[in-house]
Amino acid sequence: MAYLPPHKRHPSSTASAPTPNPPPPSLSSSLRNLSFSSRGRGRGSGGRHPRPSNKIIHAAGCISRWSPIPPFSPGPEEGDGEEPTLRLEPFPCDPIERKTGAKPLALVASSPEESSSGSTAAAVTAIAERFLPDLLAATERAMASLAPKEEELVKLSLVARVGKVLFQAQPGGSPVSLDTLRQAAKAGEDGSKSQLHKSFYTNVPSECLDDMEQSVVKRMGLEFDSSKEHYHVKVFDKQRSDSTMSCKCTVEEDGSLAIHKVEWNQVRHLVEYISCLFKGLDLRLMLCTKRILKTLDSEVENALKSLVSSAVIDPGVKGGLRWPLGKESIGERFSIVGVWHTNYKAFRNETLRLKLRDADRFDH
């Protein structure tokens, strides 16, 4: 019998359980939406493997900061008191809600008509003037730290993404407020040490992607490059608890998966979050390195091939893949911790590459 993860189970599958009465529909729905990482999960990574480190990897000296456009207006005490045109409101984000049990917060403008084109242009110029020298310095640090390794191919990239900047308080920290955001904006690069936690949610409306393909591509002078479909199988190696391997896979003619390449987590060297308050989407600029594994030892290679070959393509589950019972881990060392199904179109010119990606993700 094939293994059915929690998000695939139907109410009928729980009806035969030895309970006096079936659970109410609301409870059944909640149970079906439980993350794979829930403790007490049967076989696989939940009970036998320690939780993999999902922490984003930052290089030594990495600057991570946030700015709003337009900037905060000065309060009566240089920022004390209420911001007249801005507010924080809960933002629906299922991945964060599954982990924390609460919605993150987004900064939104209460009165878009109060936007000043002059202050916005000045803020954009200030961010660009601040970002460029930091980008050059971060690039030098990254290049100096890239010790050549025979088993890895390292690529340094500058990536701009659109999405939504979301805020959460660190565990045990103060609640998020407009005042804490003011302080974070003032802190600049020291904001990396703040108790304010920032996330970047990259789900955008399909209308936005359509508009980019129809108009933005033309305005930027881009031409169609390629379109591809991939499945990404995230694997936790107990002997490398600080990183996760991602197997980028293609679909063969017989419907099976083949590993195209294997990567470690990206390493971030510079991150600039920008809340575009009078636009529908925010911006993140990031300098990062991708680490592609060129050679694998036989144990790792065989484990990855076994996990990938055992996957069953199923459009009805989150991430598009499921595993037969007992096949989602290899011994005590390797386990599946996430699956993505992506389709993308790429456009490019001599200096830029634009990727429009549709992704179905499930991170355990």
UniProtKB/TrEMBL annotation:
Biased amino acid composition, Low complexity: 27-39
Source domain of life: Eukaryota
Ranges of compositional bias, category Basic residues: 1-11, 40-52
UniProt region (Disordered), positions on chain: 1-87
DUF7903 domain segment(s): 53-364
Record-linked Pfam families: DUF7903
Protein name stated in the entry: DUF7903 domain-containing protein
Species whose genome carries this gene: Urochloa decumbens
